């Protein structure tokens, strides 16, 4: 906390705004889902409020980058693609983050499927990236690369979901009830 958090893009405005557009929504979902499984009504209420604040941040950054797409579509598309391709949640550098992120995913707080369906898809849809007609060849290449990254991420999400279900089945067979969040709002 004393050092703060810096993105890998701290010297590039378009990449930074693209990053926080996705990160704020991802953090919103993570906080909201953490509250849901907390079994503590005060914790859930507080994290619901934090999630609302994160959503307001996301809207600001998403709208800002939407305007950048109008002004400089090719550089903005490259920034979006780079960020989606290399996205990491804040905290990824802390000791034990890999193991913690697996536990977070197993609990249904945040995983690749949520990342695709509740972060990437709605933000990309809001920016209408698949409908942009003002891209140069470079911008089109970035968008094509983005489509490939999305497809690869979907494969990873499907693989994780299948492995999680297999793990839960084994836990149940051992008499252990897995704790996973039912993600209905």
TrEMBL record:
Give the GO terms filed under biological process for this record: fatty acid biosynthetic process
Required cofactor(s): Fe(2+)
A Gene Ontology cellular-component term: cytosol
| Record-linked InterPro entries | Fatty_acid_desaturase-2, Ferritin-like_SF, RNR-like
**Family stated for the protein in its record:** Belongs to the fatty acid desaturase type 2 family.
> Which Enzyme Commission number(s) are listed?
1.14.19.-
Q: Name one GO molecular function term.
A: metal ion binding
Name of the protein this chain belongs to: Putative acyl-[acyl-carrier-protein] desaturase desA1
Give the keywords, sorted: Fatty acid biosynthesis, Fatty acid metabolism, Iron, Lipid biosynthesis, Lipid metabolism, Metal-binding, Oxidoreductase
What organism does the UniProt record list as the source?
Answer: mine drainage metagenome
Q: How does it assemble?
A: Homodimer.
């Amino acid at each position: 906390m004393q050092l703060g958090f810096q993105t890998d893009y701290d010297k590039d405005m378009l990449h930074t705004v693209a990053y926080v557009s996705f990160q704020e929504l991802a953090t919103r979902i993570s906080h909201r889902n953490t509250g849901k499984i907390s079994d503590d009504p005060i914790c859930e209420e507080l994290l619901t409020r934090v999630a609302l604040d994160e959503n307001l941040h996301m809207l600001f950054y998403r709208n800002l980058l939407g305007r950048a797409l109008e002004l400089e579509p090719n550089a903005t598309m490259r920034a979006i693609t780079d960020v989606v391709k290399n996205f990491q949640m804040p905290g990824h550098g802390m000791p034990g983050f890999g193991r913690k992120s697996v536990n977070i995913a197993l609990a249904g707080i945040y995983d690749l499927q949520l990342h695709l369906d509740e972060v990437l898809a709605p933000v990309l849809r809001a920016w209408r990236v698949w409908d942009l007609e003002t891209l140069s060849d470079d911008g089109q290449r970035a968008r094509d690369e983005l489509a490939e990254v999305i497809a690869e991420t979907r494969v990873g999400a499907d693989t994780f979901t299948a492995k999680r279900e297999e793990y839960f089945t084994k836990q149940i067979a051992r008499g252990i009830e897995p704790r996973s969040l039912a993600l209905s709002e």
